[in-house]
Amino acid sequence: MKIIVTMGRGGTGKTSFVSMMADYFIRKGDAPLLLVDLDPDQNLGEMIGVDLEAEGRMTVAELLEDTFIGKGGTTVGVAPSDRIEHRIWRDGLYEGKSFDFLALGTKWVEGCYCMPDAALRDALSRLTKQYMYVLIDAPGGLEHLNRRVTADVDEIFDIIGPSSKSFAHLLRARRVAEESGIHWKNFSSIGGFLFPESLGERAKEINEIRYLGKIAQDDEVAQRVIEGLSLIGLDHNLPGPDSVRLILQAAGY
Ligand SMILES: Nc1ncnc2c1ncn2[C@@H]1O[C@H](COP(=O)(O)OP(=O)(O)OP(=O)(O)O)[C@@H](O)[C@H]1O
Ligand SMILES: [Mg+2]
Question: Would the CB of 105 count as within 6 Å of ligand 1?
Answer without folding.
Answer: no
